[in-house]
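> @MW can you paste both from yesterday?
MW: sure, first one:
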Amino acid sequence: MNDEEQKVILTVEQAKNLLPAKERIHTFRQAGPVLIGADWDKADLESEIAACTCELAGKQAQAMKHGLVVHTLQGPLFVETASA
């Protein structure tokens, strides 16, 4: 995030509304110098969203169609979005 971008914290409902209309949703997280991707069941992801703080991702992640960040205990999880 650069100086021009500001964090936009989302409510649980706002975060869930960004999810695509499908049952498996792609995510990725940073693991050292690499990104690791995984597909989540939508219901499991919605539970994680309800338990964590969420925000809009920066421009780079949004350009990769992963416009939602869920701050989990394991670190930020970038989530595929329908739009952001």
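MW: second:
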Amino acid sequence: MKAALASQQPSDLIIIGAGAAGLSLLLALDDINYPHTVTVLERNSGPLNDRIWSFWSTDTQNISLGLLNVPRYIASIISHKWSYWSLSTSQSNYVMRSDVYRYCCVRSDDLSRLAQKRIDQNPRFRIIYNSDVTLVRTQDNICTLTSNGLAINARKVLDTRPPPIDKNHTGLLQCFYGEEITLSEDFFEPSCVQLMHQLKSAELGIEFVYVLPFNTKQALIEFTCFSLHAISKDTLKLRLHGAIKELLKQRKYTVERSENAVLPMYLLNQNHHKKNENVCYGGIAGGAMRASTGYSFLNSQGWATQCARELMRFNRFSPTAPIKRVYCVVDMIMLKVLRDNMSIGVSIFELMFKKVKPARFVRFMTQQATIVDFISVIWAMPKKPFLIAACKLLINKK
């Protein structure tokens, strides 16, 4: 659905970007019958099938127990679930399995279709494509956005556009290129996600292949590296094709689609979030991504639900950060360890799979860890490099 940009009355809320964060807030607002107008501005010409977001969630059989950690409308568009996830190196292979938690994925086009369905049923909501926002300014509690040369007014603005990569960052960058492929014969094991296949420390950084199998003939395969610097798409694509050749041998396949990104694995500067109470940042720009893992979808869901309630009750954005402070501290120490010695990364991830129980691992990854879970994860790590990194960070902070 496309709508004209011109409007006599300002929207109560404008969301910049029809990605995971923007559409999640729209759906959360619709779910609680938000009575005000919401406009989503998206720079692309229409919905894209360019992302698959993955996360851990409790199995649907536990919904009645109140254990589901995604909203029900998101649960309705989960396209696949896996009971097993694995890590492998050149010498070892580790597999985790859980009877409660499942590794899940949501496709970007399914999220867009769900949002469009809600928009079609709600006259207060709309989405406008081909809207490239170039400027946001505020005056007298009114926000004015410039898009395609036109001025649009709103009382509040949520900006979900990803921030530019900070060249002086103190963490890492997660660089990946992936292709969703289809084979003419059975090959993939559809019950197990290969989170880190052939994990190794090499010239690009910490390298591995991510395999998300949808059935025996179809999978998303990504070459991923945790690097100090951004890696070009061409280099990542070349590495992926080498990995696919090694994985599939001589099997022929067709490419259905591709995806590519460079994600910031460092804590973003949150000071700009507080300069105006009528402008808020969501998604990666809003701090929804775990710096040490690159996962953000589940955090965006929790933030969207909380933010919708705050807008409904108090007409303000949620003051609660998507990532809890204790996880930010743990991530900072982890990233410091990796920056000081990238080669230790393989041992760290291998030890986590080897010594941490699957349920504890999932709760730690999804910000639901108990004290015992934290102790278990910390105890599994090599002590000396983490203590040194923690001391360095503490000294630099003083």
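> thanks! Residues 309 and 315 are 9 Å apart (CA to CA).
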